[in-house]
Amino acid sequence: MTEPGIFAAMTPKFPLCLAIAGPLLLCSLPPSLAQAQTPPPATAPTPGGDAHAVKPAPYDARLMRMAEIVGSVTYLRTLCADAKAGEWRSDMQALIDREAGGEPDRKARLTAAFNRGYRSFASVYTSCTPSAVLADKRYRDEGATLAAEIVSRFGN
């Protein structure tokens, strides 16, 4: 039996899922639900804001943290020579493409969060040590908790 990547098909309703730890998955919301929770771009300028600003979805802060966690895990898995480390990056790119759609600012924020997580560990670990392995486990555990929260709160 082959192990699925970090994104696995869950149901047609949630086509992209991030497997953080064990059976817990973070799934991107289907386009119809994501659009319902993200209002269309504002037509009039908002005080101190851009005329084309889009109000963030209610789960965006959690999704940004998830992107940061995936960036950290990607670095740690690559550092520790995990054969599937590349899947984390490519599957996160698929989630960014799916969640950001035609919103360049949101795509930039998700990418920046991923890169921030990646760089935070690149500045600390230069070789795979027991503490790097422990950090990987802790971040995956935090991601699993976060994924369960996002799916249970916003997935239905």
Average pLDDT, rounded to a whole number, is 73
Q: What is the ordering of alpha helices and beta strands?
A: EEHHHHH
Model regions low in confidence, pLDDT < 50 over at least 5 residues:
1-17, 19-46
Task: Look at the helices and sheets and give the structural class.
Answer: mainly alpha
> Biggest sheet, strands in spatial order?
1-2
Instruction: Specify the number of helices.
Output: 5
Give the radius of gyration.
Answer: 16 Å
Shape: globular
Number of strands: 2
Major sheet:
2 strands, antiparallel
Question: Helicity range of the residues?
Answer: 55-70%
Beta fraction = 5-15%
- Quaternary structure classification: single chain
Q: What gap, in angstroms, lies between the N and C termini? A: 30 Å
Describe this structure in words.
- With 156 residues, the chain is mainly α.
- The chain has five helices and two strands, in the order E-E-H-H-H-H-H.
- Strands 1-2 form a two-stranded antiparallel ribbon.
- The protein is globular and about 40 Å long.
- It starts with 16 loop residues before the first strand and ends with a helix.
- The N terminus is likely disordered.
What's the topology here?
Layout: E1 17-21, E2 24-27, H1 31-37, H2 60-79, H3 85-100, H4 104-122, H5 130-154
Give descriptors for this structure.
single chain; 156 residues; mainly alpha; two-stranded antiparallel ribbon
In short:
This protein has 156 residues and is mostly helical. It is built from five helices and two strands, in the order ββααααα. It has helices at residues 31-37, 60-79, 85-100, 104-122, 130-154; strands at residues 17-21, 24-27.
